[in-house]
Design goal:
Strand content: 15-25%
Structural class: alpha/beta
Distance between the termini: 56 Å
Largest sheet: 10 strands, mixed
Radius of gyration: 23 Å
Number of strands: 14
Length: 479
């Protein structure tokens, strides 16, 4: 009996901790959401009435180097490059970095754009990268370059692009993504608000699955027809509109998506460029920028521009999405472990006092609180410490709070952008916002734990990925 009594006390104590944890994280989620709502009206006005169109031909807009790391991207790279070469922007260059692809990425680019190898190309930067095999160019496309290098990973490819780039701003863009024509000029407009302090700006990432694509541009916006991309569409709306707008208001944004971001090249070089060797380079570079600026007492900001949109292909099978989420889990955990010493230190301001604790306790450790919390509830039932109606009410309240967060993100979308104007689209998004709590949400917990296990096993493989032509059937590859 004493053992049972002790077990009851332990479960009661831990259950109390879990309740406080759930309440605190829910309040924090809604608090960040409030900051997003606080800024959404100015974002709407900026999106509708901004003078970005007049900037497209202005000399005051800083030139940008677009860096496109590519590994086995022969199915998407041509559409990507064609899209990037037709942006509404006065001066920019497109630098594709082939990272030792085993497919025909180099060949299709050379053939499509008539590229020839440059003798003695000039690399201005000094960041260490894997050997470069050659640089290709065609004077008929004066602002397009192709760097062919040995395989070294995405971070190494970006560093090679930085070394070769000619302009003071750099933008990282995934090879399976398409930018809206005004995306870059909208970012530039935000950069020009405070160029002295802006070190990075993140763009909004949307799911292109289901959209009609023509000549490297999204011609008709539609929601995905398949289940997995549809869940991700809801997830992205919540993360980008409901989360990143708010975090950027606090200057506590911890990640600029690798799919589309704008950076000060000088600042990126000052922190040693991108960190290679593991997934999560997009989070790592932002943490390094925060740390460097705060330790050197330099005024800065990391901003988010939700009206600058990048459309990307989302995984549409269980195998591919699980590999992606495990990879994200590995990257997140490694970044938190390596930068945990920033936590609760006032000199790191918002990053140290809010962002890092949030990401450690409510992102990296969240799966374990969820799993142990469920086990504690099972123990409550087994030891007759509670009644089923209490558990049902607790579960409904937990579902309701999560659903309200998703709905709040959809309202932000409706207020500012309305990229999905059909009533049927809204119904579908509301439905999937609820359905994601029945299976998909739980799978996310599982994938993150599996990613942490892979990290402990020192497994840094990229995993099986897929690339799908915007017009052709999909082909699966292992990287």
């Amino acid at each position: 009996m004493e053992e049972i009594s002790l077990l009851r006390d332990i479960l009661l104590g831990y259950g109390t901790i879990i309740i406080y944890y759930v309440v605190f994280v829910t309040v924090l989620y809604f608090g960040i959401l409030c900051f997003s709502y606080k800024d959404i009206w100015s974002i709407r006005r900026r999106s509708e009435f901004s003078s970005f169109k007049s900037l497209a031909g202005s000399d005051v807009v800083p030139p940008v180097s677009l860096l496109v790391p590519a590994y086995n991207e022969e199915l998407t790279i041509i559409e990507n490059v064609k899209c990037l070469m037709t942006l509404n922007y006065p001066t920019y260059e497109v630098i594709v970095i082939n990272d030792g692809s085993s497919d025909r990425t180099v060949q299709v680019l050379v053939k499509e754009f008539g590229l020839t190898e440059i003798k003695n190309p000039s690399f201005r930067g000094t960041i260490n990268v894997e050997p470069v095999r050659g640089v290709y160019h065609n004077p008929e496309y004066p602002f397009l370059y192709l760097i062919d290098k040995e395989n070294g990973g995405k971070a190494d490819s970006l560093n090679a692009g930085i070394n070769f780039s000619h302009y003071p701003l750099i933008s990282s863009i995934d090879a399976d993504s398409l930018l809206e024509k005004d995306a870059l000029i909208r970012m530039a407009r935000m950069y020009l608000e405070n160029p002295e302090e802006t070190v990075a700006i993140g763009g909004d990432v949307r799911i292109a699955n289901g959209c009609k694509i023509e000549n490297g541009a999204v011609k008709e916006v539609s929601l995905p027809r398949k289940m997995w991309p549809m869940f991700q569409s809801i997830e992205y709306l919540k993360a980008f509109l409901g989360g990143r707008i708010g975090w950027s208001q606090l200057n506590g944004l911890i990640i600029v998506s690798g799919a589309f971001g704008l950076f000060s090249k000088e600042a990126v070089i000052a922190v040693g460029g991108y960190r290679g060797g593991y997934p999560g380079e997009d989070m790592n570079i932002i943490i390094k920028l925060h740390r460097y600026m705060l330790e050197n007492k330099i005024k800065y900001r990391v901003a988010f521009c939700p009206e600058a949109v990048c459309w990307t292909q989302a995984p549409d099978t269980y195998k591919i999405i699980s590999n992606q989420r495990k990879r994200w889990g590995r990257g997140n955990l490694k970044n938190m472990i390596e930068n945990g010493n920033m936590m609760f230190r006032p000199k790191y301001k918002t990053m140290g006092l809010l962002t890092m604790p949030y990401n450690i306790f409510f992102e990296a450790l969240n799966p374990y609180f969820r799993i142990t919390g469920l086990l504690a509830l099972a123990g409550y039932v087994a030891l007759d410490m509670t009644a089923w109606p209490v558990l049902v009410i607790f579960g409904l309240l937990n579902f309701l709070s999560g659903y309200l967060l998703s709905v709040a993100a959809l309202i932000l979308e409706e207020i500012a952008f309305r990229r999905y104007p059909k009533p049927a689209d809204l119904v579908k998004m509301l439905t999937f916002s609820a359905l994601k709590f029945v299976g998909y949400h739980q799978l996310g917990v599982l994938w993150r734990v599996q990613g942490h296990i892979q990290y402990m096993q020192n497994n840094n493989s990229w995993g099986a990925m897929t690339r799908q032509s915007w017009e052709e059937p999909k082909v699966e590859e292992a990287a």
